[in-house]
Amino acid sequence: MKKQEGVHKCCFSCTICPKGTYLNTTDPYNCIECEDKEWSAKGSTTCNIRQLEYVQFSDPTAIVIMIGTVILLAFIVAISVLFALNYNTPVVRSAGGPMCFLILGCLGLCSISVFFFFGEPSVAFCVLRYFPFLLFYTVCVACLFARSFQIICIFKISPNFPNISRIWTKYNIHWIFISAAFLLQAILLVIRFSLDPPKQYKDKFYFDRIILGCELNKFVDDSLISFILISVLIFLSFCFSYAGKDLPKNYNEAKAITFCMLLLILIWVTFATFATIVHGKDIDVSNAVATLSSLYSLLLVYFLPRCYIILFKPEKNTEQYFQDLIQSYTRSYSQ
Length: 335
Known about the structure:
single chain, 335 residues, mainly alpha, 3-stranded mixed beta sheet, two-stranded antiparallel sheet, 12 helices, 63% helix, elongated
């Protein structure tokens, strides 16, 4: 660019046009800014079109994550079959019986979200990234809370307040609580996504390309109540599971639920930290990894020990073994 010096146009100095501008030969005295969808290096005479980028289904990272999701679904099916074949055994009943199949089914539905972190973001893709996971993971956490409270109610509350245990069992309060949590979260999410669904977001952090994603920060701010609901359920599950740390081993989900909740908190704190220091496609990849890790943590921590007992320790999956543990706990508790 010619920068005029003095009053005469013949006196000038040369200045290189900065990044994001270009010099048009018809106007050698001004650097012209590129349009929003364009970019240029220093000293350019033309602008280049910014490339649009997003995590494609063919991306190696996306393929690995999707394979991990398919393996998760295979685990869910295998565990469901194993529990169905051993439905009347003490291990399956102590894990929650029909509640186990509800948790496994919701984990499978949650995994749908993982696939929509890849491909060109649209309103539908952005909704399906979050809606299934938030809705059905709420059911999973509500089941863990109901199960931990039910165990506490049987072993610790019932001896002192038998009416509470009787009401809990007679009126199926655990199913009412799980249904209420599901309906409340469904109403919150439907209202949120109907009024203002998350839209495509263009990350222009890199000057030569535009990264397509979803409005994550705005979605988190607008869906705060939904996240508070899940957080409260996680906290209550943690409290009741910790209160049952001294229950009989085969009826004690304290360690499993506590460890699962701690893993869940650690996963999402790590993601939140990572999301503040990275840009572009890495945010979508890390979000997909965090979602998948949350599902694996619940599946492996809660169900895997029971599968191990069913398959490799059948002597611990008998009525007599469970009765001996309960009698031993009753004697120690009464003392």
